[in-house]
Specification:
Elements (H helix, E strand, L loop, with lengths): L22 E12 L2 H8 L8 H14 L1 H4 L10 E9 L4 E12 L4 H19 L7 E11 L6 E2 L6
Antiparallel strand pairs: 1-3, 1-4, 2-3, 4-5
Length: 161
């Protein structure tokens, strides 16, 4: 069975995964929000008037992972079994590092959910801090690990689960 998002007439369709076996699947994605050192200090010290940036971004990332099928066309809705989003202040790099891990037992992977979780968390950091730092940059969003399914494992390195 060829996996494609097009039918015989060239119309966009959701890939039929009904013949695939259900397996335990995991994906880990990472990204960063770089900011002025003063902004990173405000995030670290919870000194922004909008509240605890890291906690709000963590929750937003989890919620984003759960809504991936609503955001990405042709993405399968998944009953995620676990989502974690970790944010860490990296003062040396003047950044917030974001790591998301998504798990499911199903017929399709959770790479898009992990990438969406990182993206939404990063956008939340930006939104909460933009009044003090419009020069922030969201960078380096990428998949670092996946396991489960027919295509086998994928590691960029540092894909700790």
């Amino acid at each position: 069975m060829a996996l494609t998002h097009f039918d015989d007439q060239g119309n966009a369709v959701m890939v039929d995964v009904s013949d695939k076996a259900e397996t335990a699947r995991v994906a880990v994605a990472r990204g960063r929000v770089t900011a002025a050192p003063e902004t990173v200090a405000l995030i670290r010290d919870r000194g922004l008037g909008k509240g605890d940036v890291l906690s709000v971004a963590q929750l937003a990332g989890i919620m984003g992972a759960k809504r991936t099928a609503d955001l990405i066309p042709l993405c399968h809705p998944l009953a995620l079994t676990k989502v974690t989003v970790d944010l860490a202040v990296d003062e040396a790099a003047a950044a917030v590092a974001i790591t998301a891990t998504c798990r499911v037992t199903g017929r399709t992977g959770v790479e898009m959910e992990a990438l969406t979780a990182v993206s939404v968390a990063a956008l939340t950091v930006y939104d909460m801090c933009k009044a003090v730092d419009r020069g922030m940059r969201i960078t380096d969003i990428h998949l670092v690990h996946k396991a489960g399914g027919r295509s086998g494992p994928f590691d960029v390195g540092g894909g700790d689960e």
